[in-house]
Amino acid sequence: MILPQTNxxxxxDLLIAFGTKQDGLFGRRSSAIDKAEKNNxxxxxxxxxxxxxxxxxxxxNHFSRVKIISGMDDSIGNFDALATDIENLYFSLATADxxxxxxxxxTKRIVVLAxxxxxGVVFGLPQKIVKKIIKEFILDPKSIRVYLGPSVEMAxxxxxxxxxxxxxxLFFLSGNRLAFNYYRSAFRFDLNAGxxxxxxxxxxxxxxxxxxxxxxxxxxxxxxxxxxxxKTRKTSLITVVGLKNxxxx
Length: 249
Known about the structure:
By secondary structure, the protein is of the alpha+beta class. It has a single domain, classed as CNF1/YfiH-like putative cysteine hydrolases (4-Layer Sandwich), CATH 3.60.140.10. It is 24% helix and 25% strand. It contains six helices and 13 strands. Strands 3-4-7-6-8-12 form a six-stranded mixed beta sheet. It has a four-stranded mixed beta sheet with strand order 1-13-5-2, with no helix packed on it. Strands 9-11-10 form a three-stranded antiparallel beta sheet, with helices on one face. A hairpin with a 2-residue loop joins strand 10 (180-183) and strand 11. Helix 3 (125-137) packs parallel to helix 5.
């Protein structure tokens, strides 16, 4: 299990945790897991001290959609970002190279969990999230804290040939010019840089951001990776985020 290490996210009323390969097999995606994988997820939630009945398992689809959740009975559909101000409600997200992005505002107690891949960067999902929660909850962007979980690092996110050219062109045309470069006959892409750039454009402060730094491709014993394992991948990194019930703290 991985937890944030700095005081930015060392908050008694906030839960952020990452389940790795060392915590068991969690399945490739939330929509298709077997009984053993489901039990592993339930065990992980129990380790965190949360009721699995209060967990919403996200099913992102790279369409860069954002939804505000007001209760467990909300229909979550296929959204890449969920936000809430409800206590004792938790989001669970399965990833394997994309960035699990957490936003947190402590005064009004707002938490967001988002799935950001290259499409999310190109389609401006980080900016869409900030715009949505500022409008919905009347927030000061300077008070929003950001945590970027384990994902593929730029040194390992290399693509050659036609696919690399097309992706680089999409990054360039969408204004994400700082999030890629060309090095040793391949394009390299930096999801974290693209996310951070979009968040600072929306007024968030760089000093309120923390990057986990774990690379899902390099750290083979800890993280699953689509880049490394492709069709043989059996599990995912599980990110769990939520607001604890303050009255019991």
